[in-house]
């Protein structure tokens, strides 16, 4: 799994699913940086097939949010693997990273 922030992928994913990007064209990067610790990504070859966003409350609590997985990769334990990687990369109480 790739544990870098896939900034260039984020605006395109919701559009593929027929959704609008909720922050619009301006200001979304600032909002994400303020509330997000980072992303953990799943790739199949060179393609992004899933990610989780690790957010925080500005204090000591972090949690997984915005779990996205390509339909053909679901029900194979991939989301659980993303949660495990997020818990290892962004240490926090394990109970906050349950599947």
Task: Tell me what you see in this structure.
It is a single chain. This protein is an alpha+beta fold. It is built from three helices and three strands, in the order ααβββα. A three-stranded antiparallel β-sheet has the order 1-2-3.
Architecture blueprint of SSEs:
Blueprint (H helix, E strand, L loop, with lengths): L11 H5 L11 H8 E9 L2 E10 L5 E8 L8 H12 L10
Query: Mean pLDDT, as a whole number?
Result: 67
Give the number of domains. 1
- Strand content range: 25-35%
Beta strand count: 3
Instruction: Return Rg in Å.
Output: 13 Å
Topology-level CATH name? Aminopeptidase
Distance from first to last alpha carbon? 17 Å
- Look at the structure and name the CATH superfamily: Gcn5-related N-acetyltransferase (GNAT)
Largest sheet data? 3 strands, antiparallel
Category by helix and strand content: alpha+beta
Helix content: 25-40%
Strand order within the widest beta sheet: 1-2-3
Which outline best applies? globular
Low-confidence stretches: 5-23, 93-99
CATH architecture: 3-Layer(aba) Sandwich
Q: Order of SSEs, N→C?
A: HHEEEH
Tally of contiguous helical segments: 3
**CATH class type:** Alpha Beta
């Amino acid at each position: 799994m790739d544990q870098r922030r896939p900034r260039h992928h984020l605006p395109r994913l919701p559009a593929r699913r027929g959704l609008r990007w909720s922050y619009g064209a301006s200001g979304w990067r600032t909002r994400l940086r303020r509330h997000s610790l980072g992303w953990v990504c799943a790739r199949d070859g060179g393609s992004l097939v899933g990610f989780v966003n690790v957010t925080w409350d500005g204090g000591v609590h972090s949690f997984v949010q915005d779990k996205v997985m390509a339909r053909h990769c679901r029900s194979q334990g991939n989301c659980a693997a993303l949660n495990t990687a997020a818990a290892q990369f962004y240490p926090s109480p394990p109970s906050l990273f349950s599947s």
